[in-house]
Amino acid sequence: MGRWQFQPVNGSWDYDWMEFFEDGGYTDSWGNTRTWSMVSSNRLKLVRGFGAGTFLYDVKITGNRLEITDEYGNSAVGTRVSSYETQNSGRSTGGPLWVLLIPLAAGAAIVYFLVRRRSQRPIAPADAAAPVAPAFCMHCGQPVQAGHKFCQHCGKPLR
User: Fold this and answer.
1) Cβ count near 70 (within 10 Å)
2) C-alpha angle 53-16-20 in degrees, rounded to nearest 5
3) By the 8 A CB rule, do 142 and 154 touch?
């Protein structure tokens, strides 16, 4: 387990690095996320999510060196650059999943509290939003009583 840095040996090798986690998770330099298992002492199986493909590799691990060959004969030699056996078990806390989840959770919390705060504000009565009638008719200039919609002198609307 851990991260392995690769150098091609024979043919074409697509991955700069591969990372294997204790829980069976896997990621690589292309951004693929898969699961892994050893089907025998020298046979590695990688499975893409949702049944999109299974890949088998012949492997030979000697200390911090990993020799790997794919099903087409392409091979590479990897050097272990980090190991999770010597750290806390599980995935590293600096992985891409945490980088995405922490800001997402913080944003959701902020939105929740803003919506909650807005819903607790008192609602203004409907009368407060109504426009106030002028004290004088804007058409004829005669005084008018508050609350009337039409001028009592010229009959034109006040609003």
Assistant:
1) 19
2) 60
3) yes
Tokens of 116: 């909650």
Measured between alpha carbons, how far is 14 from 22 in angstroms, rounded to an integer? 23
Could you say which DSSP state residue 140 is in?
T
Q: Which numeric CATH code is attached to 2-83?
A: 2.40.128
Q: Write the pLDDT tens digit of every residue in 38-77.
A: 888 888 888 876 556 788 889 998 888 989 998 888 899 9
Tell me the helix, strand and coil percentages in the chain, rounded to 5. Answer: 20, 35, 45
Task: Supply 6's token pair.
Answer: 């690769």
Please give the Cα distance from 159 to 157 (Å, whole number). Answer: 6
Q: Provide the H-helix boundaries in the chain.
A: 96-119, 126-129
Kindly state the DSSP code that residue 156 receives in the 8-state scheme.
Answer: -
Q: Which of 85, 87, 58 is nearest to 71 (CA)?
A: 58
Domain spans in the chain, listed from the N-terminal domain onward = 2-83, 128-159
Please report the pLDDT score of residue 77 as a whole number: 93
Q: φ, ψ for residue 109 (rounded to 5)?
A: -65, -40
Query: Helix, strand, or coil here: 159?
Result: coil
- The sign one gets for the Cα dihedral 127, 128, 131, 134 is positive
